[in-house]
Amino acid sequence: MDDRSLERVKKQLAAVGEDDFFSELQDVYVHTAKKSQENKINHFGLQRRILYISGLLSFVNVLITMVGCFSEMMPIIPVLSAIAAMISVGNTLLLGKKAMRKYGETWLRHQSHQAAMEFEMLAYAFKAPPYDTLDPESGAEYFIGQILKVWKANQQLFAVNMKNFDT
Question: Is the entire prediction scored with pTM above 0.70?
């Protein structure tokens, strides 16, 4: 959401004496946007690490096998190859589970929360239905109620997700 739209929301809420609510809204919105970006970076960062580490270990595994074919260390080669393969599989499963469960869930939840707030703020700022038929005070009251519903839905989703989160 651009600063001009946020400024429109601020002015409309200030006109009906709801400056405090705007401050709270701005804090929650900025926090949510920041957390969404952080979790997105963490989510994809872990996926990259999984890919690079697993790829490196697979390369080491192939290298060990090739060296073993041309050396006198033939009996130890399957052991070294198995160890490299087990580390690669363990890395993929451990980091993959963490990335997909933790950062994926919070990134998507924060992104959805941010989008829901933005849609409501834009509708309010540009007097889209139902705001187009409401007087300024009723519009502000309706807007605050809608934002509180968005926050409550996000908190309820967080509670459900954390209840089901397997650490």
Answer: no
